[in-house]
């Protein structure tokens, strides 16, 4: 067993996460081997298990990092919006762009990995930093998408349940699956997506704000 200093452990863990991110994004979970990750980092396969119990644990850690990065991106983007209409449009456009450009985000939200990960995090009961991180992570989505509560409280949306508003936003992500299919004619996806976003935002609010 390799002995690492705390600084070395932190460095190797970060490198494993970075290598895992690149390989999982490029090849997917099934086609990525632990040896691919360890070769990229320059450690032995057996050393990997000093950091993660399995390839699945590394994969989930990578997805959690991607989820947190997306939430930071959303938080920053929405902060620049000046009206509820702009907030809603920004949330939709930012999330759709991430889903289309980042295969890991697509696997999280379109393939449903987000639910598996958050269910697993919810089961963490160990005391200490891990539990603290769990509680913070689980509240992040509601914190980032707090706008639906505000819209409902102000009475400016036609839907009186903020969870339904969030569900509506999540459901729009699945439209990206039609991009490369006969359902959407070649070259027409972008204007269709734009029209869909504009229609949803216009229909969501009672009046212009």
TrEMBL record:
<protein>
    <submittedName>
        <fullName>Transcriptional regulator</fullName>
    </submittedName>
</protein>
<feature type="DNA-binding region" description="H-T-H motif">
    <location>
        <begin position="33"/>
        <end position="52"/>
    </location>
</feature>
<dbReference type="GO" id="GO:0003677">
    <property type="term" value="F:DNA binding"/>
</dbReference>
<dbReference type="InterPro" id="IPR001647">
    <property type="entry name" value="HTH_TetR"/>
</dbReference>
<dbReference type="InterPro" id="IPR050624">
    <property type="entry name" value="HTH-type_Tx_Regulator"/>
</dbReference>
<dbReference type="Pfam" id="PF00440">
    <property type="entry name" value="TetR_N"/>
</dbReference>
<feature type="domain" description="HTH tetR-type">
    <location>
        <begin position="10"/>
        <end position="70"/>
    </location>
</feature>
<dbReference type="InterPro" id="IPR009057">
    <property type="entry name" value="Homeodomain-like_sf"/>
</dbReference>
<keyword id="KW-0238">DNA-binding</keyword>
